[in-house]
Amino acid sequence: MKILGLDTSTMMTTCAVMEDESLLGEFSLSLDMSHSEALVPMIGELMDNLEMRISDMDGFAVSKGPGSFTGLRIGLATAKGFAHVTGKPIVGVSSLEVLADNMYGHEIVVPMMDARRDRVFTAIYTMEGDRWIPLLGPDALPVEELIKIIKRDHERIVLVGDGAVRYRNEFVEGLGNRILFAPGSLNLSRAASVCRLGMAKLAEGRSDDMFTMAPEYLRDSQAQRMQKKKR
Amino acid sequence: MMLTLAIETSCDETSCGVVRDGREVLSNIISSQIEIHREYGGVVPEIASRKHIEGIDVIVQEALDKAQVNFKDLDFISVTQGPGLVGALLVGLSTAKAMAYGLDIPIVGVNHIEGHICANYIEHKDLEPPFTCLIVSGGHSYLIDVLGYSSYRLYGRTRDDAAGEAFDKVARALGLPYPGGPFIDSLALEGDGSAIDFPRVFLEDDSYDFSFSGLKTAVLNYLNQMKQRDEEPVIADVAASFQQSVLEVMVEKSFRLAKETGRDKIVIAGGVAANKGLRDMMENRGKKENVDIFYPSVQLCTDNAAMIGSAGYYNFINGKVSDLAMKVMPNLGFLD
Fold first, then answer.
1. pLDDT 10s digits, B163-217
2. Minimal CA separation from B325 to chain A, in Å
3. What is the pTM of this model?
4. Which of B33, B53, B104 to mutate to test the interface with A (most CBs of A within 10 A)?
5. Residue A149's closest CA among A164, A165, A163, A135?
6. Contact A84 B60 (CB under 8 A)
7. What CATH code is carried by the domain that includes residue A112?
8. Which of B61, B90, B326 sits opposite A70 (nearest CB)?
9. ipTM of the complex
């Protein structure tokens, strides 16, 4: 089974092809440009190198959120477009699990993305077998609240993602030596992990409906939040 | 014979259609979000983008089904590249790129404003350039000479608000629902257009440019003065007088350009081309001066994919094909 995976939930534009257990190729670029400009040409390069076409894929996996709202939509629109024209299945995976995969093998992993205004998109995961089980979240939490929860519930944890970089000082101050930070080389999402997580879901028949699939933003738009306040 | 799938998501309508050879519309599905945005008094970009990604593939499929074609029948994809809301445009463009690459067919990025002109080619099968064209919508006001398909010369544009924008702002001041243009148009039918003497802004004698912000301010001032005097304005008269001021200037300049360039056809394009008052005023004057007036049906005046497919076709046959790295251009102008 060959799967094309993509992730545009963080600064990284990344795509990969896996065949069963093997990674055939992966391209990632963190550029100061829109995912929209980079993504399809990058997939084209990857396909050319692998001498494959979109129609050779057996399925498509994409990070469905949380993350940059615009980024998520670019990824989903692209993956849905491929699934639509080929008639092959599509599966969405959690972008937090994708980040957590960078720290595969650790017992408690807390991936996080900056959600602005001192909040992070985050979850606390533990590993059972080869899958991530959320002990908390996924949710958009104030950093302060997340620190309290970790302090209360966990002895040793690993933090990964740009949220951990952004609020590094707060975490060090609040949690001292209970935490391990992922190195800079592992702080952004990798499409190979999207393939791995997606393939596991597809194997269980848990594909998404290409027509209705939408990002999981975990946050309303600002206008919706203001409207709710008024009520 | 060339078949295109067209995708348009520049604002609050998710629209997809199938067009043959630039003129024949096999399908033109428009899913409007207007009721959702009305609650907020205008289009909320983030909500528009969310609705687009939820609906886009459903609308594509509806367009194919209605046209009774399959993906493999398509020769190229047409997609709105700009102007518009960046997040909204990105959904359409990303979908179009994936489909074009997945099907291994070319993609053509289309200027939304050019699409509005081409809506007339769909409506009027025998309409051919050259002609004078007035393009008026919520975001744009242009007066141009159309020399040929995909060949234009700019003569005038707005120096401040777009015509449709002035309509919407005045409508808001009058307490009318969003979007206000159509409400002003229907109210104007009941009112007296000469009741209040709002300014007609013609600018310099030889200018084809427009300016609507002074007129908008004059209407707001008038309403304020009435309020201070505790008088109740006659809303229908305000709407009619405001509309009269806008239309007189647009019609006068359009006919002046047609005369200067020797054209015997004037074409109206864009959302405001649905305005009954504008259509009537153009046609009345056209009869007197032997100028034929063209405008699209109301449905083709609004944002729709078929017009993008028509413009895409004329670009395509003129060799204007885009590459997969193309960007959305939210601030794309027209001929400037």
1. 888 888 899 999 888 778 899 999 999 999 999 999 998 888 899 999 999 999 9
2. 5
3. 0.93
4. B53
5. A135
6. yes
7. 3.30.420.40
8. B90
9. 0.95
